[in-house]
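ZP: hey, is the biotin complex queued? I don't see it on the tracker
AM: it wasn't, my bad. submitting now with these inputs:
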Amino acid sequence: MKWAGDRRLSQGVATIAGVASASSAARSPLDAGALREAVVVPGGLWRDIRVVAETGSTNSDLLTEARSGLAEGVVLAAETQSAGRGRMGRHWISPPGAALAFSALLRPEDVPPASRGWVPLLAGVAVALALRGQAAVEAWLKWPNDVQVNGAKLAGILAEQAGDAIVVGTGINVSAARDVLPAGATSLALEGARTDRDRLLVGVLGELEHWYLAWVGQRGDADGCGLRQEYQRLCGTLGRQVRVSLPGGATVAGVAGEVDRAGRLVVRSASGLVPVSAGDVVHVR
Ligand code: BTN
């Protein structure tokens, strides 16, 4: 795998040798050596990329290691997970080799805890940009961080905390057929997109590094580093009529107005502006 300058692959600047065709590459194993060569560079965020054939959950594994002091910048990818976890206590399932499932360990120590809620949104921006750049699909964010193409879910993100550490897990459906996906989900193959998982992973990590370092450099000020503007540009929820199910069971309905400085979705409801910090959004129309 070779770089041609800028490591943000979504800007179309890297080439990968030895990838035969999108369909064969989709299920060929991730190449840990090539990934490391492409992404782990002196002075960069990423210090190691590990690839395992199978585990329960890459998020759980990295959380355990984070509690034992593992340093920032380690990425763990798995060909398959037996207990992949999603948001709101859901499972995340994918057939072996058909998804890109990985977690990254971050430690944004210079960012005040109140701003750290931006990490999952930042990851959503990275995934959407990499999908646009690498797979040429029109990827949009459904707040907070589902990644959709043509209104169907292509990727999901689960960020979990252990002390100062945040583990960001991403699952992207790459070659899964419709019958193995949950209702309302899609894959790159189903969208007719041609890419391979190594290239996509390098692209996501390049975007993640770019936005994370910019955000940390501004001590978590999402406006100061342009993250909030970029999130809003990519967010297909804004301007839509939405129904949000809140964790306690209540529902908020209205028009999604903006994402505020804290990363909350501000809904213009019949009773006024409601800032939502967690919940499940349905795009009503
Ligand atoms: C969601 O949409 O609900 C989030 C899905 C997140 C799935 C990824 S796959 C890699 C990482 N490990 C996990 O157990 N979950 C995340």
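AM: back. The longest strand covers residues 152-162.
ZP: great, adding it to the tracker
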